[in-house]
Amino acid sequence: MSVCKTLRVEVLLLAALGSFVSGCKPVVPPPMPPLPVNTQVIEVRPFPQTVEVTAQIEGTREVEVRARVTGILLAQSYQEGALVKAGDLLFKIDPATYEVALALAKAQLSQEQAKFEQFEAEATRQKKLLSQQATSPKEAADAEAVAMAARFARDVAAAKVRGAELDLSYCEVRAPIAGYTGRLARSEGSLVSPGADGLLTTVVQREQVWARCGVSEQDFARLFQGDAAQATRAKVEVLDRVGQPLPLLGKVNFVSAQVEARLGTIQMRAEFPNAGNQLLPGQFVRLRLEGKPLDGAVTVPTSALLQSAQGRFVYILGEGNVATMRPVQIEVIIGPLAVVSGGLKSGDHVILDNLVKIRPGAPLAPRAPAAK
């Protein structure tokens, strides 16, 4: 083979090899399109501080109706759960024993009254004789002393009559206050007596109710700066099952002066109008207490918070619409919002969604920002 033919073959081989090599180069993928995201514009504004706690409802007046004398419970004169007025008859206890005791006390009073009148007349006579010098001073003084003793004995007998009348009146057990009656604690025919076995029923007022709750030391300091007087001005709402406030607005009427050592809470009590009987004594409810608002607060949704080894951070929309990490300091998290004490400023655009797909420097396509 001639030299020219050999060179021609080598040139062709090199050209073919070059074409093969150039065909094996990796294809550079096109750049990723910007990721669409929603953002929130940071604004510094007053932020209401609230806390939700569990509370138990109580009647403003809850009275135990008890037997004040011993006897057989003859009759029940009310319907359980019914509304009664103060003074309504609820129970009747067998009065026979107390009727006899009253009769005896009245008889003794009559006897002592007769003695007193006799000795009083004698003392008057002796005093008159003494003025006429017809008796001795000692006899007049003795007659006066006997009359005085008879007067005291009569007064004792009169007090016994009053006591017997009271015992007899206690055989009729009447409602001490107006309200709703509770269940019957002792049935008819039972022997009742004062003391531990004397509870017959209860009467509860429900037109106004109390809600007792405990607020943690941290929340009490955050909402009210530890000031009990400020806590009494707090707005209090009762929440329904889905967390919406009922049309009942209460006011705090008691704040404990000390921390409950066992629970670490400050006990509080709020009063609510309850004309529609929406709240029942013994019921557990959720209360929302609103304290002093933060004058200038920066808040972000908790869903926008991310965690790294260096701490919490958010993604913000940087220059050129790229994702930029921004470390933040959280003061408190309240429900779906976090109050940020450092790291963000007014005008920053915090990214709210697609957070798992975002990387620092990634191009973004922000949608219309949502006002805070």
SSE topology:
Blueprint: H1 3-23, E1 35-37, E2 39-41, E3 45-47, E4 50-66, E5 71-76, E6 83-84, E7 89-93, H2 96-131, H3 137-169, E8 172-174, E9 179-181, E10 191-192, E11 199-216, H4 217-224, H5 228-231, E12 235-239, E13 245-260, E14 265-273, E15 284-290, E16 294-301, E17 306-308, E18 311-317, E19 323-327, E20 329-334, E21 337-342, E22 349-351, E23 364-366
Parallel strand pairs: 1-23
Antiparallel strand pairs: 2-22, 3-16, 4-11, 4-15, 5-7, 5-10, 6-9, 7-8, 9-11, 11-14, 12-13, 12-15, 13-14, 16-21, 17-18, 18-19, 20-21
Helix count? 5
Order of helices and strands: HEEEEEEEHHEEEEHHEEEEEEEEEEEE
Task: Please compute the radius of gyration using only Cα atoms.
Answer: 45 Å
| Biggest β-sheet: strands ordered side by side in the sheet | 4-11-14-13-12-15
Net shape: elongated
Low-confidence residue ranges? none
For CATH, the homologous superfamily of the domain at 50-60 and 205-294 is named as Efflux pump adaptor protein, beta barrel domain
The residue fraction in helices comes out at 25-40%
Structural class, judged by helices and strands?
A: alpha+beta
Q: What is the highest CATH level, the class of the domain at 50-60 and 205-294?
A: Mainly Beta
CATH A-level architecture of the domain at 50-60 and 205-294: Beta Barrel
Strand proportion: 35-45%
Question: What is the β-strand count?
Answer: 23
The fold-level CATH name of the domain at 50-60 and 205-294 is: Elongation Factor Tu (Ef-tu), domain 3
* Mean pLDDT rating: 87
Largest sheet properties: 6 strands, antiparallel, barrel
Distance between the termini: 86 Å
